[in-house]
Each structure stands twice: as structure tokens, then as C-alpha cells.
Amino acid sequence: MKRLKFLSLAFIALIAANGFTSCDTTEGYTIGDIYPTALVTVKPVDANSCYLQLDNTTTLRPVNLKGSPYGTAPVRALINYLETSDDPAPYTRAVRVVWMDEILTKQPVQHGNLTQEYLGDDPLEIVKDWVTLVEDGYLTLRFRTLSSGLGTTHLMNLVKGVNPDNPYEVRLRHNAGEDTTGNMVDGLVAFDLRSLPQSDDPNQKLKLVWMSFSGEKSVEFPLYGDSSSSNESVQVATSAIKME
User: Fold this and answer.
1) Of 21, 37, 104, 188, which one has the fewest beta carbons inside 10 Å?
2) DSSP per position, the chain
3) How far apart are the first and last CA of the chain?
């Protein structure tokens, strides 16, 4: 069971986070090394190697990683990295990973395969942010919801097939497990969109629908978006709240 990654206003929470993966490096660090510099897809090649998809066209060779620390499946992750002069072949750039933190990465579920009770429809808000986007075939979302912080498991699912007239309309479902009071907290989740129909339209949009605290909302994303690196600072900590 994976844990929800929360965005913290205190960078000390990042240092103490259990989900934080530090990588060996001989480089000196500055305070900026605490903050993520990019959102990537960690893609295993075999047991001893992996690469990082920075955006739709740029790949990174992590010279100080022997393989993916997250197993055999691709996952989305926040990273801080430094470019190096090593040979990047067969990738675009060679980098040294300072740290990397996995984002819960899931497959969409088919409409009708799970009960409404299981999926839930508890409210949340989608946060406009540099990590809220469609890129490299994944929908990554920063969201905000209420939580007591007492360890209740929150279920997050992306449901496809909700609109027979538009296969690119999906619905985000949130089951808070009755954990609907407390403080507003932010989290990150990603969904693999490769099971959606392929489109030849470069302007194809993905429509996301969800239940907010003020009623149903929706937003459209370019299905072939392309932007991953950012100068903005986002601090990440692991919460005691569990998430599936």
C-alpha cells in the first residue's frame, strides 16, 4: 500500500519524509537541492538500468542509479537532478540524481467495474500547478481535500468510459473513508492514460470531471501536453494518511 505525498510549506518535512529516495553523489549541495526541479517518468530497462522521461521528447540517463528503486513498472516521480558531462547515449542528457520521490501511479478503472460505494464521491479540489498536467501519457494531479491526519486510507481512482460519446472524458473519484473533517491538505497522484483510445489529432483534449466542495467541476487538458521542468519550489512530505 503506497502513501499519499503531501505538499508541505516547511522544507524540513521533506528531509524527514520516509518516501524520500536519496542518491549517492559527490556534488556539493545547496539549499536549492531540497526542492524538486522536475517531474519525470521513471522507466525501468532491466534490473540494472532505468532512464527518466523528462518530457515528451527529452530523456535522462541517471548516471548514479543502477536501476529503478520502484520496481519493474514505470512510475511518475518528483526529482532534483544535476546535469553532468557523462556520455548520455542512448538518451538525451546525462544527469546525477540528488533525490527522487515516487508519486502514487495507477491505472484507470473501467466505468461499471467497481461499485459506486467503493469509488465514493467525496469532494476535492484540483490545484492549478506545474505538476497538474498531461505528459508522457500520464495525467498527474495536485489536489486538495480535508483530512484529520489519523491514518484513514483514502481511495483515488480515475474512471474511464463515463461518456459513451467521448472516450476522452474521465472522472476522478475520491473515497475518503469517512475522513472528511480536519485540515485542508494537498496531495499528488498520477494515472497512466495509455489504455485510452489513440488519437491522431494533435489538438485532442482530455476532459477531467470531479466533485468539488462547491459542486461538480471539469477541466480540459491537451492530451499531448509537454512541460516538465520548473523553477517553482514545491516541498514534498509523506503523510500519515494512507492512500490507494
Assistant:
1) 21
2) --EEEEE-S-THHHHH-TTEEE----S---GGGGS--EEEEEEEEETTEEEEE-SSS-EEEETT-SS-TT-SS-EEEEEEEEE-SS--TTSSEEEEEEEEEEPEEE--EETTSS-HHHH-----EE--STT-EEETTEEEEEEEEEE-SS-PPBEEEEEE---TT-TTEEEEEEE-TT---SEEEEEEEEEE-TTSPP---TT-EEEEEEEETTEEEEEEEETT----B-SS---EEEEEEEB-
3) 6
SS3 of 119-166: the string is HCCCCCEECCCCCCEEECCEEEEEEEEEECCCCCCEEEEEEECCCCCC
pLDDT in tens, 136-191: 999 999 999 999 988 888 999 999 999 999 999 999 999 999 999 999 999 999 99
Cell of 130: 506545474
Rounded CA gap, 110 and 91, in Å?
Answer: 35
User: Measuring CA to CA, which residue among 145, 235, 131 is closest to residue 186?
Assistant: 145
Residue 55 carries which side chain, given as an amino acid letter? D
pLDDT at 26 over 90: no
Greater confidence (242 vs 156) lies with 156
Measured distance CA(242)–CA(70) in Å, rounded? 18
Q: CA 104, CA 115: separation in Å to the nearest integer?
A: 22
Predicted structure pTM score? 0.85
